User: What shape does this take?
Amino acid sequence: MNNATIIKEPSIAISSELLEELSTQIHEQGQIIIHCIQQAEFPSFIRIWPTTYLYDHHSEHKSELVHAENICYYPHWKVVDQGQNSFTLIFSGLPSHCSVFDLIEQCENESGAFKALNIIRNESDVYFVKV
Assistant: This one.
């Protein structure tokens, strides 16, 4: 699996309208938003498996992927250009006591899966990860 890097202050610009809309949804529905940034060395293909979860470190809870923006679900592929690409993953909420969690994509081709470990939960439940 490829390890992802948690980004505290992303260098990409995300529409303020989109951030506001997602922030409202987070508080109303208890969802977790993860903005993923991918650097492609050459034009390629990306996709996300629906078996991508957030795992609470202190319980058996796993949050399910409920929506993905700017990326295709397996078995389809999305063509991406060389350079920086981004997509957003929205998960069901984590337990209120959760303070640390992992993002793990589980797929049949484990060499293509990614993970971001030991993500420290913040008050906004919005995160940026370089994959």
